[in-house]
Amino acid sequence: MTTLLLVSDDPAWPVALERHLPDADIRIYPDIGEPGAIDYALVWAPEPGLLARLPNLKVIFSLAAGVDHILRDPNLPRSIPIVRMSDPYQCNMLAEYACLAVLYHHRFLDRTLALQARAEWEEQPVLYTPDITVGVLGLGAIGQAIAARLAGFGFGINGWSRTARQIAGIDCHHGPEQLSEMLPQCHYVICALPQTPETTGLIDSAFLARMPRGGYVINVGRGAHLVEKDLLAALEAGHIAGAFLDVFAQEPLPEGHAFWHHPKIVVTPHMAGELLPRTAVRSIAQGIRDHRAGQPLAHVYDSARGY
Ligand code: NDP
Fold it and tell me: Which residue among 121, 185, 292, 297 is the one 20 to 30 A from 239 at the CA level?
C-alpha cells in the first residue's frame, strides 16, 4: 500500500488523487495517522519540522514549480528528493499571462484605458510586431511555453538560460556575459526564472539600464528577482515604460506599497500560473508510479544548481 500525505486545503486535490491513484491511502494534513506509514508527501509550504517527523518518507512532491517554500524549513530532511511540479497546463496558463502582459503594452491598452477614464478618443500608433523583441529569462518548461506563444504573434524572441541551449525559433543566450549582450535588444523582458542565489536581485538598476529606453518588464518568476526600488527609479527616470508584475518581494503586496497605485505598473496577485489539481495530479501520479517501479524521477530539485 502506498501512503501519501497531502498538505493542502484545496478539496480538488483528494478527488484528483483518488481518481489517479485509486489504491493509495491518502492522508490529509493535519490527520497524518501513523507517521512511519507515509511514503510520499505532497506539499507547498509545510509547517516547519513536519517532513522531518516522517521517518519513512521517500519523496517530497512540490505542489508548485518552485521549491523555495519547502526549502525554508530549517529541519528539512535534505537527503529526500524533492520533485518540482511540472504541469503542461500550468505552463500554458503562464504563456497566456505573458501574452496578455506583452499585448497590453504593445497594443497601447495601458494608454487607451487611461484615455477612456477621461473620455478621450485618441488613436494610437501602429507597431510592426516583427520589429519588437522579447527577452525570455529562463528557458525551462515555462520560459519555452511563453517563447513559443509570443513567437506565434511574430515577435522576435531572445532567450536566456544558465547552460547553452538550442531551441528552434529562439535566439538563445546563456551566462551573465551573454545576458548583458542580449538586453539592449529586448523591448520586453519576461522573467521566468527559478529563485536561486544567482538569480536573486538580477533585475536591478544595471540590468534595467542595459534595456533600451522604453523597455517593459514582466515578472512571473519570483519577487526576489526584481529590485523593486530600482524599478521605481527607472520608471521615474522614464527609461523603463512600465511593468506587469505577478510576484513580489513580500506577498501579499503590503498596503501602502508604491506599486499599488503606480500608473505604469500592473499588479496581479501571484495568479499567472495557478495549479489545477485535475491536470497537475498526472505528473504526481506518474512520479509515484516511476518511483515504485524503480525508475528515475523527473524534475528533481538539484541543490547544487539551486533549482
Ligand atoms: P525549469 O527548472 O524548467 O527552468 C528554469 C530555467 O531557468 C532553465 O532554463 C534554467 O537554465 C534557467 N536558469 C536557472 N538559473 C539560471 C541562471 N543563474 N542564469 C540563467 N538561467 C538560469 O523551471 P520552470 O520553467 O518550471 O519554472 C520557472 C519558475 O517559474 C519557477 O521556479 C517559479 O519561480 C516560477 N513560477 C511562477 C508561477 C506564477 O504563478 N507566477 C507559477 C509557476 C512557476 P538551464 O536551461 O540552463 O537549466
Answer: 121
